[in-house]
Specification:
single chain, three-stranded mixed beta sheet
């Protein structure tokens, strides 16, 4: 029953707020009783999961469920699961809901139906809203620091969803941002011109961040080569060498490397590529394929 209501809510979002709807369609929805309301986490290398309590979903109307789904999508897109090293969890939770919900008089999320001008928002008078005298265009870290300066004098209201699931996310910051960027790119392709205006600055910051691909590559290979076992080769009949460390065939990984050697790649970048390949060759059997886009082949 609750899964049907969630499905209807996602379809309603596709009609009224298609950008949020497409992001929600790329999330995994799990019914559980371990959360009181709803919460998100990113696990297993990039699976964006939203856990929901069926009793909570049953209490809401379908348009109100849309508000909660948008709320969860915003938390993911804004990378709130990372907390960015901010230590006070309670204060960060309040700041995160402030930036997601907006002000009570001008909410950032929620849909309108049947020609009504008022958005469908569950527990409107009990949620955490951005104070009307605060600037609406700041990020979570700004509101967090301002709340800290208030020395615990937090605004009234309660956090709508379960933020404790954020700590279960098992990705590094770089990997998390890659997952978020892929969600955004997919939603933008399917809903051109429908991305919420208040999220444009968030997306621009994601695009400006540089991805340390060597670190990600090494982490991935370490996971793949975790079961390797060293051995020592027999003395070669023609070359005078002995005791050369190697890998047993059953344990040795097989890695295929494709290198772009077209004119758009500089000599410095090629040197970096082959330097990483040399490190890979010490732990895996490697096949190298050189690709030149100018000849459209190799």
């Amino acid at each position: 029953m609750s899964s049907n209501r969630l499905e209807k809510a996602r379809c309603l979002l596709l009609a009224h707020e298609p950008w949020y709807g497409h992001v929600a369609m790329n999330m995994t929805w799990i019914e559980t009783s371990i959360v009181r309301t709803m919460g998100v986490r990113v696990v297993h290398g990039g699976d964006v999961q939203c856990l929901y309590n069926p009793l909570f979903v049953k209490e809401l109307t379908v348009p109100e469920i849309c508000f909660v789904i948008q709320h969860e999508v915003e938390h993911v897109v804004r990378c709130h699961c990372l907390r960015n090293g901010l230590s006070d969890k309670l204060t960060f939770n309040v700041a995160a809901d402030m930036v997601v919900n907006g002000s009570k008089s001008l909410p950032r999320i929620g849909i309108t139906t049947d020609g009504a001008r008022k958005r469908h928002i569950p527990c409107r008078d009990e949620l955490i809203w951005l104070p009307h005298c605060w600037s609406p265009n700041e990020n979570t870290e700004y509101y967090y620091r301002r709340l800290v300066r208030m020395r615990g004098d937090l605004p009234d209201g309660f956090v709508l969803d379960d933020h404790s699931l954020w700590e279960q996310s098992d990705l590094s910051e770089e990997e998390f941002r890659i997952v978020v960027r892929s969600l955004i790119v997919d939603a933008n392709k399917k809903t051109r011109g429908n991305m919420p205006g208040h999220l444009r600055s968030v997306v621009e910051q994601l695009d400006q961040s540089q991805i340390p691909w060597p670190a990600l590559l090494r982490r991935y290979l370490n996971q793949s080569l975790g079961q390797r076992r060293t051995s020592y080769s027999r003395r070669h009949r023609r070359r005078d060498e002995f005791g050369v460390p190697g890998m047993t065939r059953r344990r040795q990984a097989h890695v295929s490397v494709i290198v772009d050697v077209s004119g758009s790649v500089s000599h410095k970048e090629l040197g970096h590529f082959f330097g990483e390949m040399e490190k890979i060759c010490t732990s895996a059997r490697t096949d190298v394929l050189l690709w030149d886009c100018e000849f459209r082949g190799f």
